[in-house]
Amino acid sequence: MKEALKLICFNFIFYILFILFSLIGIPVFSAIVAFQSIFISHRNGMKKFRRAISWYGLGVIRFLPFPFVRVFYKDLDTTDCKGPFIFTCNHRSASDPFLMACIPYEFVQVVNIWPFKLPVLGFMARFAGYLSIREMPFEEFSKKATDLLNEGVSIVAFPEGTRSADGSLGQFHSSIFRVALKSGYPVAPVCITGNENLPARGTLLLKPGTIRIHKLPHLKFEDYKDLTPFKLKNSIRQIIADGIEVMEGKKSL
User: Fold this and answer.
1) Residue 237: enclosing H or E segment and its boundaries?
2) For the purposes of burial, counting CB atoms within 10 Å of the CB of 213, is it exposed (0-12), middle (13-18) or buried (19 or more)?
């Protein structure tokens, strides 16, 4: 009974804070960026706008649920490559897009259509240049993604397409890997664990937990240029699967 009450209180407090933070934070961040954009180039204005979205995401995922939910990010890539990267991540929860704010890079995400339908957040995502793979043919998607990479903007993709129903790693789609082979940019696998119940599939109920995000060593174009999209996606999928097993203590390094 005590645990149930604690869970109810946690969710009540979180969602109240989430509403207040959104009502205050989004207009404030937008106003600051809009004011700065008067004095800087469009490119720098977009960079600041995307950074503001990350600040909002960090607030939602790292500060509002604390101390019930703790988030730890670790970069395991020891090279000096500064990107931009094509980040490929496993997908366990609706909170995954917010968690990407922990990655300290300017980026846009590859999403399905539904995020664009969200009030306010959908407009912000579309304005920031987020890419909906369902709304355009591959050639257009590839060109827009490559143009962003050429500008120094990383791409974040969830190749499973939809969140896992049971925490297992689903099959990967090939689109983002075809972009990688056409553009020649480094691919950085990212593993996420611990957020399966934040929230659980089919509910908005959050449960306390510890979330870990590991950015694994990237693959340079020279490492994968001779692979087909099918072999590349399966290679990256195996890297992520192995990384998750290490994070969950099922496999040693």
Assistant:
1) helix 229-247
2) buried
Are 188 and 104 in contact, with CB atoms under 8 Å apart?
A: no
3-state helix, strand, coil in the chain (%, to 5): 50, 15, 35
Confidence of residue 253 (pLDDT cuts 50, 70, 90): low
**CA 139/CA 183 separation, integer angstroms:** 12
3-state secondary structure of 148: helix
Strands 209-215 and 187-193, by their bridges, are: antiparallel
> Using an 8 Å Cβ cutoff, are 187 and 196 in contact?
no
The yes-or-no verdict on residue 166 having pLDDT over 80 is no
Indicate the domain borders of the chain: 69-247
**Cα–Cα distance for residue pair 23/18, rounded to 1 Å:** 9
- What does residue 28 show for φ and ψ, rounded to 5 degrees? -65, -50
Q: Are 157 and 88 in contact (CB under 8 A)?
A: yes
- Of the candidates 12, 2, 151, the residue with the CA atom closest to the CA atom of residue 83: 151
Cis upstream peptide for 159 (omega within 30°): no
What whole-number distance in Å separates Cα of residue 74 and Cα of residue 212?
8
CA pair distance 186, 154, nearest whole angstrom: 10
Segment holding 54, helix H or strand E:
helix 42-58
